[in-house]
Amino acid sequence: MSEPTDLLRPGAGLGEAEFRELADNAPVLIWRAGIDKQCDWFNKPWLDFTGKTQKQLCGYGWGDDVHPDDLDLCTRNYEQAFDARTSFSTPYRLRRHDGIYRWFLDHGAPFYRQGEFAGYFGSCTDITAQKELEAHQDVLVSELNHRVKNNLQLIIAFLQMSKLRAQGEEARQLLESAIARIQGVGTVQAELYRSASGTVDLAHYLPHLIRASIEAERDDSIHLSVDADTAYAPFKLASDLGLIVNELVANAIRHGNQRTTQIHFSLKRLATGELQLTVSDRGQGFTATQLTNAGAAGSKLSGQGLIGALAKRCGAALNRSNADGAVVTLTLPHP
């Protein structure tokens, strides 16, 4: 296969005039840099967009039109990729000739002449419409988050009122459990909303969720230790895992040692590629009946059915055991 610049040699492909014609009529902004990192050519659409001449843009003159907030990232990505001879992609705002900034996605890659590094070619695609859509979606998500939060608070308030009027200890405990679960849902939803990408860092998200649950108890006797490997998961899986962990922590607090509650959270990547999540405590542990019939109707372990159903939905293997307290382990396929 011919290298890109071989196309400019007579008889090898496009001649220089044909290449210039192609580049100057392309629907993107195109640039070229030599081995010294200095840009030495821009196509006509770039000149038309900025209203600048080749002389004004060459070297690092093009940087004068990059938005000041984006310039450091733009030049850093470019220079790091250049030194490593790797391709790169960087979004940044570029000033048009009328002073208006528009978003572009700059793709750059090294090129070679007869096997020798000769510099970089790059193209910039206008992504302003995409950025505006993302901003609009952010507003909608923020509004949705606000409404969900308010609705959950309203439901909790109704349940708390019902708890005050409830007849019998069993009814009050059921309402208290429902309130705790809805509060857990609210915490999960709030944490997921803070994630800016399509995936969630479980090593940050799940321990933060546990700490929020512990802080809500306002009990200094509850202590948490964490040992978590970095692992990312899509929103849906992260949401289910958050609900599971919230339920496990609630159980650990409810059935823990009367004087102090020790909760340990572990998230480990196994050699098989699977992800193993463990929540353990130093409490009274599981009874033999709870270990053998934890998912059955009538189980005395609160929320066991919910944990089992969520684990199944996650495709996780669920295991319960005793080791100086209760130990619950979920083993998930690679997220």
Automatic annotation (TrEMBL):
UniProt-listed Enzyme Commission number(s): 2.7.13.3
Catalytic activity: ATP + protein L-histidine = ADP + protein N-phospho-L-histidine
SMART domains: PAC, PAS
Name of the protein in question: histidine kinase
UniProt KW Kinase keyword: yes
Gene Ontology molecular function, alphabetical: protein histidine kinase activity
Keyword entries, A-Z: Kinase, Phosphoprotein, Transferase
Pfam families, A to Z: HATPase_c_2, HisKA_2, PAS_3
Alphabetical list of InterPro entries matching this protein: HATPase_C_sf, HATPase_dom, PAC, PAS, PAS-assoc_C, PAS-like_dom_sf, PAS_fold_3, Sensor_kinase/Photoreceptor
Leader peptide range in chain numbering: none
NCBIfam families: sensory_box (TIGR00229)
Residue ranges of domain PAC in the record: 88-139
